[in-house]
Amino acid sequence: MSIWLSEILRAWRASLRRPGFALLATGVLALGIGASAAVFALIEGTLLKPLPYPHAERLVAMGMMTDNGAATSPELHQHLMGMQGVESMGIVTSMAPSNVMIEGRPMQVPTLLVDHGLLPTLGVRPALGRGFTAAEDRPGGPLVVMLGHAFWTSHYGGSPRVLGQSLTIEGKPHTIVGVLPAGFEQLGRIFDPTGDIAVVLPTAFPANSHDDGTNYMSVARLAPGVGIGSVSAQVDTRTRALIDSAPLTTSQKSWLSRQRFVAIDLQSQMHHGARGVLLLFQGSACLVLLIALVNLGNLMLLRSLARSHDGAVRRALGASLWREWLPTLADALLIGVCASLVGMLLAWASLHVLRQLVSSDVVDLRAAVLDGFTVSLSLFVGVSTALMAAALGVWRSRKWVDMDHLREGGRSGLGRAEQRLGRVLVVTQVVLATSLLLVAGLFLHALYDAAHAQLGFSDQRILTMELAPVKAAYPDAASVQQLTRGVLDQLRAQPGVESAMAGTNLPVGQQLNLPAHAPGEEPSSMQFRAISPDFFATFGIALRQGRAFDAHDTRGGETVAIINSELANHVYGGRPLGKLIDILSGPDMVEARIVGVVENTSQYGPLGPQPPIVYLPLAQTPDKLIELVRSFEPLRFAIRVRGDALSYRAAMREAVARVAPTQPTANLRTLTSIVESSTADARLDLLLIGVFAVLALVLASAGLYAVMAVSVAAREREIGVRMALGSSSTKLLAWVLRSGAMQVVIGLGIGLVLTLAASRLLRKLMFDTLGNDRALDPWTLVGVAIVLLAAGLLACLLPALRAARVQPMRALRGE
After folding, report:
1. Are 581 and 592 in contact (CB under 8 A)?
2. Can you name the residues that pair with 218 across neighbouring β-strands?
3. Pairing of strands 172-179, 166-169
4. Biggest alpha carbon distance in the chain?
5. Which of 11-25, 460-474, 507-521 has the lowest mean pLDDT?
6. Which has the closest alpha carbon to 142: 115, 173, 165?
7. What's this model's pTM, rounded to 2 decimal places?
């Protein structure tokens, strides 16, 4: 044991005396471990962390599969009650912000609707008080409310005396019956990225609801031993029976027949939208780690070959296999431990920086921590991979070592097989780096296009505001329109305001889908907007045909509509003026005559498509449609101003206060910031993918440098002979650069072929993360090729200059 320990210490001392190799190998492995550990901590804190509910593995979400998971409606939820193998069920949704009065001050706060079965189904006990009863969860029941934990502590000081107090919501007193526990906000993030929950109200559905809006989530707790598959089959059977019996059109039934109705575990539901992006990050980090491991294996092989003479001497003197391998394994142990520790430091720093840069609205990084499991796993990966790379290097080098190494004093250089393996490993790194660079290039090109995209509207010098009319004070469409007119009059009277508008939506951000169709056609989902006449002027949306809305478009006259060019071209053949459009169906259908066509707008942001949109005058919007919109969204107001838009925030609040002193307002933001927030997810994706791509490029360049540097050193005698025979320094420089560039070109070619072969997967990836299915384009391919070739030539430059400065006589003497 003492001999082994002395060998290990001797190897470490030798590495510390000449630390170049140890520092390079440690840095290479630390970059791979740091990237992987940071992403693994993020995934463990989101996708893998158990939900904070008892027996959470038995909780499922049920309904129709959408991009955001399983969605359901009150009608479907009631139809699914009583399934075999289900112990209990509950339903939850987010609604339009509620207007509350706290100490005489009006506020607009985020709100959830839950039924009396949700908390028992989740196994959640209120931090204070109780949940809702069945009597409270029905139409006309007692007016009660539960408070969110953060709202309770910030506005009531966490006092237990809050129970039984009255909170005015929408102009009506509600009795506070309970307080949600801390951490319940995690459920709220399904509907709002911030997870803010101020107040929770009962759903109060009628016994046989016909509400088919799929803005809800049904949660069920399975009985012990019941599988998700059996419940999922029951969900599908019951839903399709409901569809068959419903009075739907042929196209609606056809569309619904193609949908999936399932039960999925609640863990997947909670992070369904982020799963694809997080797995993309994990895949990128794994590629970086793989490049680092290949690089480390290459470095350890070159290190073992450099020690081949020492190993041959040891073997000739009768040393055992372990004594021969021990110095290299000791180096690997030191490198593995140091790389793991440095990698953990890099991962911690990366997560800290991301928390400062990334808003919680985009992704919640608070749960991403480097716990004991992550640290232990990183240490195991670092040490084990370093030891395996060293063992592989020793084994391969021992296979190639012969007595010539003893006779020539270790100056025989690298053999063909040794050089071939080194080049293969470099090409492998370039292939992997090419894949990451291509993905990063696509993201960068998409964001460049987004920055230069034509939005169809102007976002400059515009300040926006949300206002949800207090329901007790403004119970119907007429009173809402009266409030709207009063606020608009006050806004237009403010100095510096050029125009003002009100409506259900802004040109970007929020969505409001309603079925609409030309008479005789099948309904299809379209974006709907109820707006004031100055909407198009305020946002600079160009009128292409017909006229805009004016003050004469009021109730009592013919209902009119304006549509965008997308809808006009695809449904009306580009000539829609004077024709009719039907919004909704059945007794609630609104028939309007088209009087104008406006430019398309990027409703989903500059990265998304421009959908068909139908506009109605706010003054002609029926009560039921206004009520439907109010249940999920507040009204939006916007002003175009002279100068800095943010300087008008106080004036905008004062204008509302003059008309309605007790009416809260919220979210006063510039339209420019809203447009920028629509690309926040894509910018985060580009940041992380870009970091991984840069790491891959650095690692691949380091691997190429190491191979070329060792190759030049090992072939010093050959270079000396070439120079003695008349070869110039310029030719030797070009020879080394050409050798390195060839490896880069081969790796680039293979990487491009593999990426193109996976083009379908790549397009799906781009659609899931950016909202479009952008394919590889020539500019991205050329850019990646230039970057890789430049990096490869820079990596070869120093070894090439060293080769050009070789002294022929010194090389031939073998000194």
Report:
1. yes
2. 62, 91
3. antiparallel
4. 108
5. 11-25
6. 173
7. 0.74
Neighbours of 720 (CB within 10 A): 20
3-state secondary structure 130-188: CCCCCCCCCCCCCCEEEECHHHHHHHHCCCHHHCCCEEEECCEEEEEEEECCCCCHHHH
- Nearest to residue 164, comparing CAs of 156, 98, 184? 156
pLDDT band with cut points at 50, 70 and 90 for residue 118: very high
User: Distances from the Cα of 395 to the Cαs of 297, 301, 399, 746, in angstroms?
Assistant: 12, 9, 6, 27
Q: Return the higher-pLDDT residue of 643 and 296.
A: 643
With cut-offs at 50, 70 and 90, classify the pLDDT of residue 407: very low
N-term to C-term CA, the chain: 38
Please write the tens of the pLDDT for every residue from 628-683.
788 778 899 999 999 899 999 999 999 999 999 889 998 899 999 888 877 766 67
Cα 448 from Cα 273, distance rounded (Å): 24
Cα separation of 812 and 654, whole Å?
Answer: 90
The DSSP bridge partners found for residue 502 are 637
The 10s digit of each residue's pLDDT in 760-784 is 666 666 555 555 555 567 777 788 7
Helix (H, G, I), strand (E, B) or coil at 475: coil
> d(Cα 815, Cα 813) in Å, to the nearest integer?
6
CA-to-CA dists, residue 347 to 28, 34, 44, 662, 694, angstroms: 14, 5, 14, 49, 16
DSSP 3-state of 429: helix
Q: Enumerate helices (H) and strands (E) in the chain, giving the number of each.
A: 27, 22
Residue 594 and residue 527 in contact, taking contact as beta carbons nearer than 8 Å = no
Q: How far apart, in whole angstroms, are the C-alpha atoms of residue 349 and residue 281?
A: 17
CA torsion, points 514, 519, 522, 524, in degrees to nearest 10? Answer: -20
- Element at 266 (helix H, strand E): helix 266-270
Cβ pair 390, 415 in contact under 8 A: no
Tokens of 67: 């991009």
DSSP track, 195-219: ----EEEE----TT-------BEEE
pLDDT band at 598 (very low <50, low <70, confident <90, very high): very high
* C-alpha atoms less than 13 angstroms from C-alpha of 191 in its C-beta half-sphere: 24
Tokens of 693: 């791509």
Q: List, for residues 132-179, the tens digit of each pLDDT value.
A: 999 999 998 999 999 999 899 999 999 999 999 999 999 899 999 999
Residue 119's CB is within 10 A of a number of other CB atoms, namely: 23
d(CA 400, CA 392) in angstroms, rounded, equals 13
Strands 580-583 and 217-222: unpaired
The pair of three-digit structure tokens given for residue 5, joined into one six-digit string:
């320990």
- The single-letter DSSP state of residue 643 is S
The whole-angstrom separation of Cα 392 and Cα 394 is 6
The residue with tokens 């987010």 is 94
In angstroms, the CA 613 to CA 512 distance is 10
| Contacts for 68 with CB less than 8 Å, ≥ 6 apart | 190, 272, 273
- Phi, psi angle pair for 229, to nearest 5°: -60, -45
